[in-house]
Structure formats: structure tokens, C-alpha cells
Amino acid sequence: MEKIKKLEVIEGVYWIEIPEAELYILCACPADAVKHMMQRGVIVARERDGVRFESGPNVVLLSDVMLQNGYFSNLAEFPVLQMLYRQGMILPGHPNNLGVKPLLLGSAKQIQAQLEYIYRGNYGLISREEVEATGVAPEVVEEVMQMKYKFAFGAIRKSEDLLDAQVVTAEAEEIRNGVTVRRTDLNRFEFSYGDEQVTVDLNLKRGANYRSPYPLGFHNITRQYFAVIHSGQGDGWDLNRPSMSSVLMYQGKIYLVDAGANLSYCLMALGIGVNEIEGIFQTHSHD
Questions:
Q1: Do residues 154 and 92 touch, judged by C-beta distance below 8 A?
Q2: Of 40, 35, 118, whose CA–CA distance to 74 is shortest?
Q3: Which residues fall within 8 angstroms of residue 158, CB to CB, at 6 or more apart?
């Protein structure tokens, strides 16, 4: 009976499962990696002690390179949020909160970049001073901060307090429970457990990209003097729709209101070229 199971989620993204060692590893995390895992059946609904939650990874292996063929390879925020909240690994009193933190694997540079990015994605603005700088009324500042502290269970914490991290080198080192990992080449890794080994290659072939989890039709939208087009009405967990975003047209110029996952695919579906974008309004911090 094989101890290590390997599944190609999409090109350049793999799932490694070692149930005996209680390790479930997402290898590479481009945009919408969570949705792809849902489609492949590695994230499913579970219930324990009357509490519903999701299965999923407890380890993320980062790509050695941030960009491949113009696409981000490391967007670990939503996989981490899925572990912390939808799996319940951070929720007080949750049956899946066993005191074991999610683990990030990769180069020191990529780990640090992801820790900083996840911190902002998780909390957004982090202090009264930052909220005040947006120009909102004092009573709104207080309301926002109360909401943030409630969401954060009383304290905004650094990513290092929520996650474990381990640098991967050419030497095999133990991750947890007897499982080791080593880098064999750029973006190529080997996992070992007992007398079994599997390898993953996170390199995209030339001209390849990380495909979208949802199909979109193709349109050639009319350029108008003023118009707003809702280009996405889903969220980070919606399998069938892009995350919320809009296209604003004004006096022949095109602006984006948020620019989420699979942006180039969404723009292409609307008949908009990237070179047409005049500017982007960002409403909050996410992918």
C-alpha cells in the first residue's frame, strides 16, 4: 500500500497526501488554487462533533520563482485563510484546532514575501492611524477597529504567530512526522517518507499558464462615454465566478475597480486589452 499519494491539480500545481504522517501538501499556489483543489476533490465538507468545516492542505510548498510566463506562482493568502478559518485551525474551541500551525515551505526569500503579503491580506489596515488616514469620521474608525479586533480574536498578530515556516535546501530535512523534503533543482522537489519518494516539478512549460477554474464567455463590450460593468460577482471560494470587481469607462478611458485573480483571462473575455487600462482603484488588500 503506497504511503505517499500524488495528484496533479492543474499544470504546475500538485497535491501530495501522506495520511499516515497527517501531512497534506499543496505544491505551488497560483491564483484560485483553493478553487482548483475544490474541483479536484481534495477540499471537501467534513463534520466533527456537530461542527461543519472543510478538509484541505496543512502545508504549502512555494514556488522558487514568484512569476512564471507572466503569472504569479505564489499567492498563498487564500490557501492560508482556508486552513485558518474554513478548516478551523485558528478558531477557538474548533475541533480541528489542535495547536498545530499551517506550514510554509520554500526559499527564505519567497517565505518572507508571503508572510508579509498574508499579513496585509488577512487584516488590511492594521491600526487606528492607518484607518484615520483614509479620511473617515472618528466614530467610523472606532467601529472599524472593533470589528477588526473581533475578527482577529482580540489581537492583530504577525503572520509568524499564525504560521510555521521552513526553508527548503538541497539537503533532505524533516518537515513533520518523519517526512522529509529537498530541492533537487530549480522548482523541483523530492518528498520522502519511509522507503517511498515522490518528486514534483513546479516549472510551467514555455507558453503555458495557470488555467482558470471557471469558463467565461467572450464579448466585445461597447466603449461608452460613461459605464460600469460588473466583471466579477463571486469571492475567493466561488467555483463558478470571478471575485468581485468592476470595469469603469469614462471619456474613452478604462479603469478597473479591484484587479483580482485571473485578471488577464477576465479582461480577454470582455474584449479589453491590458494596454487599454488607464488605472486601478483598489478597495482592499487581496490577490
A1: no
A2: 118
A3: 115, 119
pLDDT tens, 236-285?
899 999 999 999 999 989 999 998 888 889 999 999 999 999 999 988 76
pLDDT tens track for 72-97:
999 999 999 999 999 999 999 999 99
B/e letters for 111-123, b = 16+ CB within 10 Å, e = fewer, are bebbbebbbebbb
Query: From CA 68, how far away is CA 207, in angstroms rounded?
Result: 10
Phi, psi of 228 (to 5 degrees): -125, 125
C-alpha to C-alpha distance for 156 and 283, rounded to whole angstroms? 20
User: Are 43 and 237 a contacting pair, CB within 8 Å?
Assistant: no
Q: Is 141 helix (H, G, I), strand (E, B) or coil?
A: helix
Handedness of CA 45, 47, 51, 54 (dihedral sign): negative
Q: How far is CA 108 from the centre of its chain?
A: 18
Q: What single letter denotes the amino acid at residue 95?
A: P
Q: Which residues fall within 8 angstroms of residue 283, CB to CB, at 6 or more apart?
A: 257, 258
- Integer Cα distance of 81 and 57 in angstroms: 11
Q: What's the DSSP call for residue 220?
A: -
In three state form, how does the secondary structure of 172-218 look? CEECCCCCEEEEEECCEEEEEECCEEEEEECCCCCCCCCCCCCCCCC
Q: With 0-12 CB in 10 A as exposed, 13-18 as middle and 19+ as buried, what is 221? A: middle
